[in-house]
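I have been asked to look over a protein record a colleague put together. Alongside the sequence sits a line of tokens, each denoting a local backbone shape. Please read both lines and tell me whether the tokens look consistent with the sequence. Take the sequence as given and treat only the tokens as open to question. I have pasted the whole thing underneath without changing anything:
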Amino acid sequence: MRTSGRMRAAARPVPEQGPCGASVGTGGTGVGQPAGRHPTEDDTKRSPSGDCMPHHPVDSTQSSQSSQSPPPRSTPPESRRTPLQRVLRGLFGMLTVLLVGAGTLAVYAHFRSSTPLPAATTGEPDPAVSAAQLRSFQAAQLHFPGRRWQPAEPADLGWDAGALERAHDYARSLDTSSLMVLHRGVPVAVWGDVDRRESSQSMRKALLGSLIGRLVAAGQLDLDASLLELGIDDEPPLTASERQATVRHLLLSRSGIYRSALYETGGWKRAKPERGSASPGEEWYYNNWGFNALATIYEQRAGEPLHEAFAAQIAGPLEMQDYRARDVVYLTRDHTTERLMGNRSDHPAYVFMISARDLARFGLLYLAGGRWNDAQIVPEQWVHESTFGGALPTGWGDTSWGYLWWVDAPSEALPYPSYSATGGRGHSVTVVPALELVIVHRIPDGGTGLLAQMFRRFVWHPEVDYQQRQRLLELLLAAYPSELRPSSVAAPASELTEPAAPDAPERPDSGASGTPPASSPPGA
């Protein structure tokens, strides 16, 4: 199995400077991007950093008198400073420059470093899958890896090695940091830093959804329970109508609750309907308030923190190699970035730091209908309802939204029904059941810290946009075994009948994890 060299990243321009050294932002575009893209959470408002000092006329007499006064002792001019003071001042300036430079280089190195590693936890190469094993995998349809992946030679699975290499070359020309392709659970492409933990961005929602499905199956949560019944509120309080929204409404992003949310960026703030303009269940709007409240509801009903539950119930049984319980970051109303962005809510946002190869296991879990080997980790009915069975239209082309998953009808680039979790300027986990494929795509990410987010905003802005990802999909499918390719597959019909959102905007770019615009915020 071949692993790649470093994925190339493109530099981004530094923002323009306005009067008095203020940064001049160019906030993201709102809704109205070309159709055929997932909205994501990655835009924010930007404003000048300060005002000029006002000019006050000075009386000439006062000016003459003041000129005869000695300067204050606390601020002596350079000529009055002692040699020791001048030396200390120079050393302090040099130290400041060195510290700022070192910090900038450290963040830059974190973003740009991309060393290809084998898909194993040690330096030992993974054993290749034998032809006999491949036949057994094909007979069983899906192979579930143990603690370590067993990559195969693509040709042994019928893949066109030359076409796959062309896809690899194209991926190297993008800001892609890692990419992993599973066919029937066997890796046929493992490119880049697949073991590096990056921010999940909006893929976090699908990860949470797996835990909610288990809670529902255990009888600990009723999807039709209202927020009033569950005791869910916020500050300032919800209205009587908003309290009637149910868990199902939150999952489908149709709660009608249009208020400030953490991890919400400028694009979605501008696109947000007026508060009280829709009742629960009436309209679809990509709503971070509901996504965050779902985590609050989960922890309330389950009686355990989200990060620990995911480690024990999902990561553990799937033998994820890199995930640790501490790899979930909670953003509260006191978080510096949230305060700067004016986001206010009592419901924290949860962000997973997770690797590509661990996300590949999660995608395989859903491809298998929630099963892992002989254990049913996530209820099969929940997987069905979350994807094809429960998806409703969003108003953006042929894209629907299920229980925290995007569901796509066949397209020119991918002529088969699929569902995906997307986020942050190019992160995605795509599942194509008809082809038994899981495709994980990542870009470099600096995490949720303020310094990393400002660096992402102003210095280097990695992104693989919708058209680039579609082109990469086309190249990957060109390598797929022709004899295994179905002639056509109809998109499964949803079992829900709720109406689509009226007068929905054109489907925006998915460059960011939850915002209509393609630009990226500090905080998403």
The domain at 179-484 is CATH 3.40.710.10 (Beta-lactamase). Confidence is low (pLDDT under 50) at residues 1-36, 41-78, 106-139, 499-524.
